[in-house]
Amino acid sequence: MYYTIRVMFGLIKNNFLKYLDFSFQKTDLLVIFILIISISYIKIFNITEIPENSLLENISLIPLFIAVVLCYRFKRYKIFFNVLALLFILMILRELSYGRVIFCQVPNSPNEFYPWSHYKYGYLAHIMVGIYIFAMALYGIINKIWLNIFEIINKVKFPVWTLGCGIIFTILQIYFEGTHNICGEETVEFALYCIIVSLCMIYTKKLK
Question: What 3-state class would DSSP assign to 122?
């Protein structure tokens, strides 16, 4: 019995490991370098707060735009990458508070914005976001996105270090958000978005 369990565990382990790539990607080094530069910049200039819709906050939109372009330009597995691009667009809209930072600025307060509830039909903004998410999910389901996913999993190993950094940055972002450390939250969020670009570059390169 013990021998049988060991054999089964060994088979599961070997089959699982064949889907993992433990090599350190060049893009991972670039993301770590960007994170160090970002932290150094904040420390050197003693930045203690990053206001809503400020330049430092909006810089985080750059990697998301790059990720959208990478996904839309990739010609293979279009369903999967189209859904990813739509998801990244949603993340960009979220960074802009779904347009609130553009259309709802408080007079004479460049970093303060009225909530959607301040407006008579402001609730429609949330309904439109819901419709967008539903349409995105429906597009993926109708076009059987899981077929693309299974093919990609079989063709490209999971980059362990890249995904690991993404998980760590996500946990740190949640922690900083909970402790109201805006600088920490925005810095780690920027690094997380750079990891997303790194993943897009890894997969689009290996799937060509």
Answer: coil
| pTM as predicted | 0.83
Q: Would you call 20 helix, strand, or coil by DSSP?
A: strand
Contact present, 112 and 105 (Cβ < 8 Å): yes
Which are the contacts of 81, defined by CB distance < 8 A and separation ≥ 6? 71, 72, 74, 204
Beta bridge partners of 158: 20
Burial of 183 (C-beta count, 10 Å sphere; 0-12/13-18/19+): middle
Q: What is the pLDDT along the chain (208 residues), one digit of tens a residue?
A: 443 444 344 434 456 677 788 888 888 888 888 888 888 888 887 877 777 777 777 888 999 999 999 999 998 899 999 999 999 999 998 888 887 777 777 777 766 777 777 778 778 888 999 999 999 999 999 999 999 998 998 888 888 889 888 898 899 888 888 888 888 888 888 999 999 999 999 999 888 8
Give the SS3 label for residue 158: strand
Q: Other C-beta atoms within 10 Å of 194: how many? A: 28
Rounded alpha-carbon distances, angstroms, from residue 92 to 76, 87, 89, 97, 156: 24, 9, 5, 9, 27
Alpha helices (runs of H) in 45-181, residue ranges in sequence order: 55-58, 61-73, 78-95, 100-103, 123-142, 145-155, 160-178
Contacts of 133 (CB under 8 A, 6+ apart): 90
Structure tokens at 203: 């997969």
